[in-house]
Protein backbone atom coordinates (compact mmCIF):
# COMPACT_ATOMS: atom_id res chain seq x y z
CA UNK A 1 0.00 0.00 0.00
CA UNK A 2 2.82 2.41 0.84
CA UNK A 3 4.34 1.84 -2.60
CA UNK A 4 1.02 2.77 -4.19
CA UNK A 5 0.79 5.95 -2.08
CA UNK A 6 4.31 6.92 -3.17
CA UNK A 7 3.43 6.37 -6.84
CA UNK A 8 0.57 8.84 -6.45
CA UNK A 9 2.39 11.47 -4.38
CA UNK A 10 5.51 11.50 -6.53
CA UNK A 11 3.35 12.65 -9.46
CA UNK A 12 2.12 15.81 -7.76
CA UNK A 13 3.13 18.70 -10.06
CA UNK A 14 6.43 20.25 -8.90
CA UNK A 15 4.99 23.78 -9.19
CA UNK A 16 2.44 22.92 -6.48
CA UNK A 17 4.55 22.34 -3.32
CA UNK A 18 1.60 23.30 -1.12
CA UNK A 19 -0.14 20.05 -2.12
CA UNK A 20 2.91 18.08 -0.99
CA UNK A 21 2.78 19.84 2.38
CA UNK A 22 -0.93 19.09 2.79
CA UNK A 23 -0.33 15.44 1.90
CA UNK A 24 2.55 15.20 4.38
CA UNK A 25 0.31 16.51 7.16
CA UNK A 26 -2.26 13.74 6.67
CA UNK A 27 -0.43 11.27 8.91
CA UNK A 28 3.03 10.33 10.21
CA UNK A 29 3.51 7.63 7.59
CA UNK A 30 2.94 10.01 4.68
CA UNK A 31 5.04 12.66 6.40
CA UNK A 32 8.01 10.29 6.77
CA UNK A 33 7.62 9.22 3.15
CA UNK A 34 7.50 12.72 1.65
CA UNK A 35 10.23 14.21 3.85
CA UNK A 36 12.59 11.30 3.20
CA UNK A 37 15.67 11.67 1.01
CA UNK A 38 14.63 8.77 -1.23
CA UNK A 39 11.28 10.37 -2.10
CA UNK A 40 12.86 13.77 -2.73
CA UNK A 41 15.44 12.25 -5.05
CA UNK A 42 12.84 10.25 -6.99
CA UNK A 43 10.58 13.30 -7.22
CA UNK A 44 13.38 15.28 -8.89
CA UNK A 45 14.26 12.45 -11.25
CA UNK A 46 10.63 12.13 -12.37
CA UNK A 47 10.40 15.90 -12.87
CA UNK A 48 13.88 16.70 -14.27
CA UNK A 49 13.20 20.38 -14.97
CA UNK A 50 12.77 22.55 -11.85
CA UNK A 51 9.55 24.58 -11.99
CA UNK A 52 9.45 28.36 -11.96
CA UNK A 53 8.18 29.03 -8.44
CA UNK A 54 8.16 32.78 -8.95
CA UNK A 55 10.24 35.71 -10.09
CA UNK A 56 12.11 38.56 -8.46
CA UNK A 57 12.34 42.21 -9.43
CA UNK A 58 13.75 45.44 -8.03
CA UNK A 59 11.48 47.89 -6.32
CA UNK A 60 12.61 51.33 -5.23
CA UNK A 61 13.46 50.17 -1.70
CA UNK A 62 14.41 46.52 -2.22
CA UNK A 63 13.77 43.19 -3.94
CA UNK A 64 10.31 41.63 -4.18
CA UNK A 65 9.44 37.96 -4.78
CA UNK A 66 6.27 37.45 -6.82
CA UNK A 67 4.92 33.87 -6.69
CA UNK A 68 4.04 32.00 -9.88
CA UNK A 69 3.06 28.81 -8.00
CA UNK A 70 1.72 27.78 -4.60
CA UNK A 71 5.16 28.40 -3.05
CA UNK A 72 5.48 31.36 -0.67
CA UNK A 73 8.91 32.29 0.73
CA UNK A 74 9.23 33.15 4.43
CA UNK A 75 10.23 36.71 3.43
CA UNK A 76 8.93 37.89 0.07
CA UNK A 77 10.40 41.40 0.31
CA UNK A 78 14.02 42.26 1.18
CA UNK A 79 14.86 45.88 1.91
CA UNK A 80 18.08 47.50 0.60
CA UNK A 81 18.77 44.67 -1.85
CA UNK A 82 19.26 44.79 -5.62
CA UNK A 83 18.46 41.75 -7.76
CA UNK A 84 21.32 40.23 -9.79
CA UNK A 85 20.85 36.54 -10.64
CA UNK A 86 19.10 33.31 -9.65
CA UNK A 87 20.20 29.78 -10.48
CA UNK A 88 20.23 26.24 -9.02
CA UNK A 89 17.86 27.14 -6.18
CA UNK A 90 19.75 30.20 -4.94
CA UNK A 91 19.55 33.95 -5.53
CA UNK A 92 22.36 36.50 -5.83
CA UNK A 93 21.68 40.04 -4.63
CA UNK A 94 23.70 43.15 -3.78
CA UNK A 95 23.40 45.00 -0.49
CA UNK A 96 22.95 48.70 -1.27
CA UNK A 97 22.18 49.82 2.26
CA UNK A 98 25.54 50.82 3.72
CA UNK A 99 28.38 50.61 1.20
CA UNK A 100 30.15 53.07 -1.09
CA UNK A 101 30.32 53.10 -4.88
CA UNK A 102 33.58 51.11 -4.72
CA UNK A 103 32.77 48.63 -1.92
CA UNK A 104 30.19 45.98 -2.83
CA UNK A 105 28.69 43.30 -0.58
CA UNK A 106 27.04 40.36 -2.33
CA UNK A 107 24.56 38.05 -0.60
CA UNK A 108 23.51 34.54 -1.63
CA UNK A 109 19.94 33.83 -0.54
CA UNK A 110 17.87 30.64 -0.55
CA UNK A 111 14.17 31.72 -0.71
CA UNK A 112 13.00 28.23 0.29
CA UNK A 113 15.01 27.87 3.52
CA UNK A 114 15.52 31.65 3.95
CA UNK A 115 19.22 31.00 4.50
CA UNK A 116 21.70 33.84 3.82
CA UNK A 117 25.42 33.90 3.14
CA UNK A 118 27.23 37.23 2.95
CA UNK A 119 30.34 37.33 0.77
CA UNK A 120 33.52 39.31 1.50
CA UNK A 121 33.52 42.89 0.24
CA UNK A 122 34.68 43.25 -3.39
CA UNK A 123 36.14 46.60 -4.46
CA UNK A 124 35.31 47.77 -8.00
CA UNK A 125 33.60 50.73 -9.65
CA UNK A 126 29.94 49.92 -10.35
CA UNK A 127 29.54 51.77 -13.65
CA UNK A 128 29.49 48.88 -16.16
CA UNK A 129 29.29 45.41 -14.67
CA UNK A 130 27.30 42.20 -14.20
CA UNK A 131 27.32 39.14 -11.93
CA UNK A 132 26.26 35.49 -12.04
CA UNK A 133 25.69 32.71 -9.50
CA UNK A 134 26.07 28.99 -10.19
CA UNK A 135 26.67 25.59 -8.63
CA UNK A 136 30.37 24.69 -8.24
CA UNK A 137 30.05 20.88 -8.13
CA UNK A 138 31.61 19.26 -11.20
CA UNK A 139 29.18 17.03 -13.11
CA UNK A 140 26.23 17.98 -10.89
CA UNK A 141 22.74 17.23 -12.23
CA UNK A 142 21.37 20.14 -10.14
CA UNK A 143 18.52 18.04 -8.79
CA UNK A 144 19.51 18.58 -5.16
CA UNK A 145 22.53 20.91 -4.94
CA UNK A 146 21.22 24.01 -3.18
CA UNK A 147 23.28 23.25 -0.07
CA UNK A 148 26.50 22.53 -1.96
CA UNK A 149 29.42 24.75 -3.02
CA UNK A 150 28.81 27.67 -5.37
CA UNK A 151 30.61 30.26 -7.46
CA UNK A 152 29.89 33.96 -7.97
CA UNK A 153 31.39 35.60 -11.05
CA UNK A 154 31.56 39.40 -11.36
CA UNK A 155 32.58 41.00 -14.68
CA UNK A 156 33.51 44.69 -14.81
CA UNK A 157 34.20 46.96 -17.79
CA UNK A 158 36.79 49.68 -17.34
CA UNK A 159 35.19 52.78 -18.89
CA UNK A 160 37.90 55.26 -17.88
CA UNK A 161 40.39 54.52 -20.66
CA UNK A 162 41.08 51.68 -23.07
CA UNK A 163 38.15 49.28 -23.02
CA UNK A 164 38.78 46.06 -21.16
CA UNK A 165 36.63 43.71 -19.10
CA UNK A 166 37.86 41.94 -15.97
CA UNK A 167 36.35 38.94 -14.17
CA UNK A 168 36.49 38.13 -10.45
CA UNK A 169 35.39 34.73 -9.12
CA UNK A 170 34.27 33.92 -5.57
CA UNK A 171 34.43 30.29 -4.43
CA UNK A 172 32.38 29.28 -1.39
CA UNK A 173 34.84 26.44 -0.80
CA UNK A 174 37.80 28.82 -0.59
CA UNK A 175 35.84 31.68 0.97
CA UNK A 176 37.66 34.34 -1.06
CA UNK A 177 37.68 36.28 -4.33
CA UNK A 178 40.19 35.39 -7.03
CA UNK A 179 42.62 37.76 -8.70
CA UNK A 180 41.02 39.30 -11.82
CA UNK A 181 41.55 38.11 -15.38
CA UNK A 182 41.17 40.58 -18.26
CA UNK A 183 40.28 40.74 -21.97
CA UNK A 184 40.38 43.69 -24.40
CA UNK A 185 37.31 44.58 -26.49
CA UNK A 186 35.64 47.32 -28.48
CA UNK A 187 34.11 50.48 -27.06
CA UNK A 188 31.11 49.00 -25.28
CA UNK A 189 29.64 48.40 -21.80
CA UNK A 190 28.41 45.25 -20.03
CA UNK A 191 24.65 44.99 -19.40
CA UNK A 192 23.89 44.08 -15.77
CA UNK A 193 21.00 41.63 -16.16
CA UNK A 194 21.90 39.93 -19.46
CA UNK A 195 23.78 36.65 -18.97
CA UNK A 196 23.44 32.94 -19.67
CA UNK A 197 25.09 29.72 -18.47
CA UNK A 198 25.65 27.15 -21.23
CA UNK A 199 27.66 24.07 -20.40
CA UNK A 200 30.77 25.20 -18.54
CA UNK A 201 30.77 28.79 -19.80
CA UNK A 202 29.07 32.04 -18.82
CA UNK A 203 28.02 34.57 -21.44
CA UNK A 204 27.39 38.30 -20.90
CA UNK A 205 25.89 40.79 -23.30
CA UNK A 206 27.30 44.21 -24.23
CA UNK A 207 25.10 47.28 -24.62
CA UNK A 208 25.51 47.79 -28.39
CA UNK A 209 25.16 44.06 -29.15
CA UNK A 210 28.27 44.04 -31.31
CA UNK A 211 29.86 41.29 -29.21
CA UNK A 212 29.30 38.82 -26.37
CA UNK A 213 31.68 38.10 -23.50
CA UNK A 214 32.47 34.41 -22.89
CA UNK A 215 33.95 33.21 -19.59
CA UNK A 216 35.17 29.60 -19.73
CA UNK A 217 34.87 28.40 -16.13
CA UNK A 218 37.04 25.33 -16.64
CA UNK A 219 40.02 27.10 -18.23
CA UNK A 220 39.23 30.36 -16.45
CA UNK A 221 39.62 32.35 -19.66
CA UNK A 222 37.79 35.34 -21.11
CA UNK A 223 37.14 35.73 -24.83
CA UNK A 224 35.02 37.89 -27.13
CA UNK A 225 32.40 36.57 -29.60
CA UNK A 226 31.70 39.03 -32.42
CA UNK A 227 28.06 39.19 -33.52
CA UNK A 228 27.05 39.56 -37.19
CA UNK A 229 26.42 43.17 -38.14
CA UNK A 230 22.69 42.59 -38.66
CA UNK A 231 22.30 42.12 -34.88
CA UNK A 232 24.09 45.34 -33.93
CA UNK A 233 21.86 47.68 -31.98
CA UNK A 234 19.11 45.09 -31.43
CA UNK A 235 17.64 44.41 -28.01
CA UNK A 236 18.50 40.76 -27.41
CA UNK A 237 18.17 38.43 -24.42
CA UNK A 238 20.88 35.80 -23.97
CA UNK A 239 19.57 32.36 -23.11
CA UNK A 240 20.28 28.66 -23.13
CA UNK A 241 18.18 27.35 -26.00
CA UNK A 242 16.00 24.25 -25.92
CA UNK A 243 18.63 22.12 -27.65
CA UNK A 244 21.33 23.30 -25.24
CA UNK A 245 22.97 25.84 -27.52
CA UNK A 246 23.94 29.37 -26.69
CA UNK A 247 21.23 31.54 -28.14
CA UNK A 248 19.28 34.71 -27.80
CA UNK A 249 15.76 35.92 -28.36
CA UNK A 250 14.61 39.17 -29.91
CA UNK A 251 11.50 40.70 -31.48
CA UNK A 252 11.28 41.24 -35.22
CA UNK A 253 8.13 42.76 -36.71
CA UNK A 254 5.96 41.71 -33.73
CA UNK A 255 7.38 38.16 -33.83
CA UNK A 256 9.76 36.47 -31.38
CA UNK A 257 12.88 35.17 -33.12
CA UNK A 258 15.30 32.76 -31.44
CA UNK A 259 18.88 32.31 -32.65
CA UNK A 260 21.44 29.72 -31.51
CA UNK A 261 25.18 29.25 -31.90
CA UNK A 262 26.92 26.16 -30.49
CA UNK A 263 25.99 22.79 -29.04
CA UNK A 264 25.87 21.94 -25.34
CA UNK A 265 23.72 20.21 -22.68
CA UNK A 266 20.02 20.64 -21.98
CA UNK A 267 18.47 24.03 -21.24
CA UNK A 268 15.39 26.05 -20.36
CA UNK A 269 13.55 28.51 -22.53
CA UNK A 270 11.19 30.77 -20.63
CA UNK A 271 11.43 34.48 -21.36
CA UNK A 272 9.60 37.54 -20.04
CA UNK A 273 7.90 40.15 -22.21
CA UNK A 274 6.26 43.46 -21.37
CA UNK A 275 3.30 44.60 -23.42
CA UNK A 276 0.63 47.28 -23.03
CA UNK A 277 -1.52 44.58 -21.39
CA UNK A 278 1.02 43.61 -18.70
CA UNK A 279 3.93 41.24 -18.08
CA UNK A 280 3.88 37.79 -19.70
CA UNK A 281 6.01 34.65 -19.61
CA UNK A 282 6.53 32.79 -22.87
CA UNK A 283 7.62 29.14 -22.88
CA UNK A 284 9.53 28.63 -26.12
CA UNK A 285 9.26 24.84 -25.77
CA UNK A 286 5.47 24.63 -25.54
CA UNK A 287 4.65 27.98 -27.25
CA UNK A 288 2.45 28.79 -24.25
CA UNK A 289 2.25 32.23 -22.68
CA UNK A 290 0.88 33.37 -19.34
CA UNK A 291 0.04 36.80 -18.00
CA UNK A 292 1.65 37.23 -14.56
CA UNK A 293 1.36 40.90 -13.63
CA UNK A 294 0.85 44.53 -14.48
CA UNK A 295 3.90 46.13 -12.87
CA UNK A 296 6.98 47.32 -14.74
CA UNK A 297 10.55 47.22 -13.41
CA UNK A 298 13.22 49.28 -15.12
CA UNK A 299 15.79 46.64 -14.22
CA UNK A 300 13.89 43.63 -15.58
CA UNK A 301 12.82 40.47 -13.77
CA UNK A 302 14.70 37.30 -12.85
CA UNK A 303 12.90 33.93 -12.76
CA UNK A 304 13.36 31.69 -9.71
CA UNK A 305 13.29 27.99 -10.59
CA UNK A 306 13.69 25.33 -7.93
CA UNK A 307 12.21 22.20 -6.44
CA UNK A 308 10.44 22.69 -3.12
CA UNK A 309 9.61 19.53 -1.18
CA UNK A 310 8.59 19.81 2.47
CA UNK A 311 10.82 19.16 5.44
CA UNK A 312 8.59 18.16 8.33
CA UNK A 313 9.20 17.11 11.91
CA UNK A 314 7.79 13.76 12.97
CA UNK A 315 7.89 12.61 16.58
CA UNK A 316 9.60 9.26 16.85
CA UNK A 317 7.57 8.34 19.92
CA UNK A 318 4.00 8.94 21.05
CA UNK A 319 1.00 10.26 19.14
CA UNK A 320 2.26 13.74 18.26
CA UNK A 321 1.07 14.89 14.85
CA UNK A 322 3.55 15.91 12.13
CA UNK A 323 4.24 19.64 11.95
CA UNK A 324 5.56 21.72 9.10
CA UNK A 325 9.05 23.18 9.39
CA UNK A 326 11.00 25.22 6.84
CA UNK A 327 10.74 23.72 3.40
CA UNK A 328 13.75 22.35 1.57
CA UNK A 329 14.38 21.39 -1.99
Descriptive report:
Pfam families: Beta-prop_AT5G49610-like (PF23635), F-box-like (PF12937). Residues 7-42 form the F-box domain. InterPro entries: AT5G49610-like_b-prop, F-box-like_dom_sf, F-box_dom. The chain is mainly beta. Helices cover 10% and strands 44% of the residues. It contains four helices and 26 strands. It has helices at residues 2-9, 17-24, 28-35, 37-46; strands at residues 52-59, 62-67, 77-79, 81-87, 90-95, 103-110, 115-118, 122-123, 129-135, 150-158, 164-171, 176-177, 181-184, 190-198, 201-206, 211-216, 221-226, 237-240, 246-252, 255-260, 270-275, 278-283, 288-293, 301-305, 312-313, 323-324. Strands 4, 5, 6, 7 and 8 form a five-stranded antiparallel β-sheet that branches. Strands 9, 10, 11, 12 and 13 form a five-stranded antiparallel β-sheet that branches. Strands 3-2-1-24 form a four-stranded antiparallel β-sheet, with no helix packed on it. The chain is globular. Residues 262-268 and 313-320 have low confidence and may be disordered.
Structure at a glance:
By secondary structure, the protein is mostly beta strands. The protein contains four helices and 26 strands.
N to C succession of SSEs: HHHHEEEEEEEEEEEEEEEEEEEEEEEEEE
Stretches with pLDDT under 50, minimum 5 residues: 262-268, 313-320
C-alpha termini separation:
26 Å
- How would you name the oligomeric state of the polypeptide chains in this document? single chain
Strand residue percentage: 35-45%
Fraction of residues in helix: 10-25%
What best-fitting shape do the alpha-carbon axes yield?
Answer: globular
The total beta strand count reads 26
Rg, please? Answer: 21 Å
Structural class: mainly beta
- How many H/I helical runs? 4
Mean pLDDT, nearest integer?
77
Largest sheet: 5 strands, antiparallel
